[in-house]
Design brief:
- This protein has 270 residues and is of the alpha/beta class.
- The protein has twelve helices and ten strands.
- Helix 1 crosses helix 11, helix 5 packs across helix 11 and helix 9 crosses helix 10.
- It is globular.
- The model has no long low-confidence stretch (mean pLDDT 94).
Length: 270
Amino acid sequence: MNTNAIGVFDSGLGGLSAVKQMLKAMPNENIIYFGDTGRVPYGNRSKDTIRKYAMQDANFLLKNNVKMVVAACGTVSSVAPDLEDVLGVPYTGVVLPTCFTALRESKNGKIGVIGTTATINSHSYKERINEKNPSFQVFEQDCPLFVPLVENGIIDRNDEIVKLVVEKYMKDLKVAGVDTVILGCTHYPILKEAIGDFMGENVLLIDSGKETALYTKKVLEEKGLINERANNGNAQFFVSDTPDNFEKIASLFLSKDMKNKVSRINIEEY
């Protein structure tokens, strides 16, 4: 048994979709979450900058003696997939577990992938899917306005702005006839209802946060690092900018009061 925390990082709020699922799948685990709200979004940065930010984020978590690092960020997972080689602890991003699920669930072999511009330009999801099954058709679409919508709390499925932006990005995938869509950024499950309304009930949306949480549990079990204590674990939250907006959105998303439960750090120190 290992009672050290699982370390989770993202460019901002999106990784909360993975934390939410971890709390369901592993309620007895401790979690340390870092959201780089001062430098969000990562999706329009260069590869070198994304890798630099990812290493700083991971180093902060390692300073807190985490037993595993989870990059709950599609951009980092796509642009810097080799972080495990330098971290010294088990590591996962979101690409691998999400692709496995999409390959298993798609019935017509047409999979849509939505993500940040950096994620889509890396073709990480498409390449992984076609490695496993070259016959699958993968349709990619970057959605650069989705992260700013989520970070600013504009997430209501009935909001006209949300509906217009969803239609703008999803219409080509709908025309292509995909039966499965990978939400390739952990911010996107927060817009899942609005995306589902547009795509229709026959299109399966793959939640990268959920699949990553389940994969994290599998890795911990395989490596003998699972926390087997009976009582619930403790979750700590850190950001690189003012906690106010993060607390507000996190309270809605995690269904609990986050007021004064989020601490600000200077990520440049790491």
